[in-house]
Amino acid sequence: MVQPVDQPVIGVAIVTYNSAKIIANCLSSLLLSQGVRLRIVITDNASEDDTCDVVRAWANEHAETVSFAEKVSENLEGSDATLTLIRSPVNGGFAEATNRGLSLLMQDAEIELFWLLNPDCVVLPDTAENYARAGADGNFALMGGRTRFHDHPDRVQTDGGKVSRWTGVCQSVNWGREAASARMPVADELDFITGANCVASRRFLENVGLMEEDYFLYYEEVDWAFRRGDLELRVVPEAEVLHHGGTVIGTTSIGRRPSPFANYFNYRNRMRFVRRFLPLSAVGAYVFVLAKVIQLIPVGAFSEARAIIAGALELPPPADVRALLAPQSHDLAFSPRHRERMPR
């Protein structure tokens, strides 16, 4: 990744978990980015597959243009490498891993923009440059573009998100609509930028801080956006990403129902978010839970319904949800207690 030194630098924070089949494509697409210099930090959340080996092999294959470093999570001193792999011994969740990557990238004074990117994303060659141009003044909180479905690139996955003040339910703007005709929202119409493809400014990170870590999965970026104060959101229509979505955890996609695992964390964290930011919406949030369960039971989706109830009431997770995480992650993932963010 040999680039002119006068180009702007963007830090890219990627979290992997059992991402062996997808991470190389993501990295290869980043390698084709134009008009910017990238520093990429991958934090691996104790993957049980060959994710780390795939990253090492990819770095070795591109050794002439990509410098590579590897760290354990307890040793986060700065690195000049263009690609750094942080190996976390325990899966502490999306926010904790993201915070580790951001903390390392923030040590580089050249980096003013910090791009959160899911490992199952493929970026277009001009996406990073469009972000760099739109965020050059740094006077914003979070910035996003258009994310399209990887397997249905003619369809929008999200153009940003809104939160219902009645129920706390998040809505992906333009989800499933034809990309060619869907109007891109303006920033004032959004409540948050989706964490799969989101750029944070240094000013935002220094003034507001890192992500809250007690969500483990889902609603971290919504919480983050609600803490932004007077800093604005920005929308960059020209910045496009293709995203598989739910490759490991079973998030909803076109024609696919959310898995029990996804339901448990989504409904649990919605209630946590509502209690923090929209306490008057708690009754509406519980009514939505009841309505969803009533909808699922007649179609035989008992596991999904059970996970929703357990999550919303902060009960211990069903066995099929618990089984998807290694035992050493259970306290971090399923604890009802608030977790302090990792120090900046």
TrEMBL record:
It comes from the Bacteria. One of its GO terms (molecular function) is glycosyltransferase activity. This is Glycosyltransferase family 2 protein. It comes from Altererythrobacter lutimaris. Residues 12-150 form the Glycosyltransferase 2-like domain. InterPro entries: Glyco_trans_2-like, Nucleotide-diphossugar_trans. Belongs to the glycosyltransferase 2 family. PANTHER family: GALACTOFURANOSYLTRANSFERASE GLFT2, RHAMNOSYLTRANSFERASE WBBL. Keywords: Glycosyltransferase, Membrane, Transferase, Transmembrane, Transmembrane helix. It holds the Pfam family Glycos_transf_2. The chain crosses the membrane at residues 277-297.
